[in-house]
Amino acid sequence: MGKDYKQIVILSGKGGTGKTTFSGAFASLINKKIVIDCDVDAANLHLILKPKIINRYDFSGGKKALIDNFNCQQCGLCESICRFDAIHNYEIDQLSCEGCGFCVRICPYNAIKFGSSQSGHLFECVLEDESKFYYAKLFPGEGNSGKLVSEIKRKALENISGEIKWVIVDGPPGIGCPVNASIAGADYVVIVTEPTVSGIHDLKRLLQLLNTFKIKAGVIINKNDLNKSISDQIYEYAEIHNIPVIGTIPYNTDFVKALINGANIVESNNKVREEISDILIGLEQEVNKTINY
Amino acid sequence: MIISIASGKGGTGKTTVAASLASIIPESVYLDCDVEEPNGHLLLKPEFNSEERVEKNLPEINRDKCTFCGKCLEVCEFNALINLGSEIILFEEMCHSCGACVHFCPSKIITEISKEIGIIRKGIADGNVLFVDGVLNIGEVSVPPLIKEVKKNIVESKLNIIDSPPGTSCSMLEAVRESDFCILVTESTPFGLNDLKLAVDVLKTIKVPFGVVINKYAKSFIQMEKYLFNNGIEVLLKIEFDRRFAEAYSEGILPLNKYPELKAGFIELHQKIMKKMEIEKIG
Question: What's the pLDDT at A293?
């Protein structure tokens, strides 16, 4: 089964390098697209894109166990088998419980209830140009963001129109489960990095991860003139590993001003708009190279 | 005493604040719980003196004796096992190592094997700071268990500084829970504010007292101050937006070591938190 669209995921490893800023810029410059914010822990893309919400769905992250004090005979079996140290004094700490259900099944008195709770919302929206946009919000203290990422992507892609050419995914930081869930099905990953010791450190770890999934990636160096020597190191590392640097953006106070005003950088500054349009052309070429890959 | 540093949004300056505090508090313990992308070592430059493997359990099914009854699949809440009829396959990244399949297998043919998920490194920084970090293996997803292991190195008699991962879900929760105080580091942007609100909600839910450090502070972003004022949240420290600080950081230099004018702010930050803790204790 072929699909007509290309799915581009924007990642960084290190947080705060500019993932969302670039996702917002791409979203504004590309037509025939849908846009998904997969940073469900701390979703920000809606702040730039200012979407109109058309549907809200409930999300349930998983089940939690709860001891029914009336039936509990205080035998302590549940506490002894719980691997998550979630049970103390015949009470289950809801934050520690991972919902494995072991205690529920093993309790000789059927005194442990197992229920799913609603743990967040998923929003289906439209943008100014009528494109679809999806983002989500977890309730405070809820875990399972990897599952919510999978859920939001499933929702976004299930009824995708044949006219869509691009799926733009704003990813989470790190290299853990939400990142793995974000890159499932990706055609290409854009890594936004910065020339700092931590930027390059985290970039390397992310590239190793992508390599295990055999996903092609390109790098954008944001704040490129902040540290020339580390910028050179990034170029060198990218070249050795056959990763194209598809663009650089200088450390720019206009950029910061746009951020403070909650504006889309491509709409607030013509020079930046041109720079990012150029990056997009390069990106498109790289993505097209992967077609017959 | 445990102080955690968290943020919601990534890249606001958690590690800079955490490492700066560690560097001005003699005999402190710094624990990097951002195990997906640990960066504290790049700023504190510890001399490592030990490294240990952290493992998790995974079920191993004895194929020859398996009857394919499907009980293990039935008890697995994480859908980590699938039955192909001739073989049962485990999706390692879905497995939470709960042990239910092992226990409930009627033929008792599932055993557990251990698999490395990451390492814990320990060392000394700045002569007297105990440095601990966790480094997740690439491709591994068992983040909270590794954070738990890092936190086992907390020294109760000392001041422990926990550098939390970004975000507001399981890994951040694991890092900040049981803290005596949490510093939320934010920045003067709508992103910073939005994610600060999310992090505040989490801390209120788990009842950890907190205060805010505004990094890359810009006076013009008044929404931040409005929110903090309206919600009675104390600003513990403001660090001006300054390209020189970013440049120092980019080289792996703690800005306060290059620009001593920053030091006073961190000393005051430390004192403020200690005072708050005392009041908390009495209250």
Answer: 47
